[in-house]
Design goal:
Largest sheet: 3 strands, antiparallel
Number of helices: 3
Strand content: 25-35%
Oligomer: single chain
CATH superfamily: GIY-YIG endonuclease
Number of domains: 1
Number of strands: 3
Distance between the termini: 22 Å
Low-confidence stretches: none
Length: 87
């Protein structure tokens, strides 16, 4: 899933929680969350299980804004976003 653009992603944890982030390489970042000290502290409590949502953005600024938008959503809205692929 490597590209020259930026991606917003949502990863589901072992306990069913969602983590939202941005990166230029979703697969690499997912592996970091699963197994290295470069992963988010969020996954120390509950391991990263699967990528449930990705969206490519034009640049880092757009990705950061969309990430902030997703983080402001309720769990129900996040589930809807994951199911539909976009809101």
């Amino acid at each position: 899933m490597k590209s020259s653009g930026w991606f917003v992603y949502i990863i589901k944890s072992e306990l069913g929680h969602f983590y939202t982030g941005i990166t230029t390489d979703v697969e690499r970042r997912f592996k970091e969350h699963q197994s290295s000290s470069k992963g988010a502290k969020f996954f120390r409590r509950s391991a990263a299980v699967e990528i449930v949502f990705t969206k490519e953005c034009v640049n880092r600024s757009e990705a950061s804004k969309y990430e902030a938008y997703i983080k402001s959503l309720t769990r129900a809205k996040k589930l809807e976003l994951i199911k539909r692929g976009d809101l």
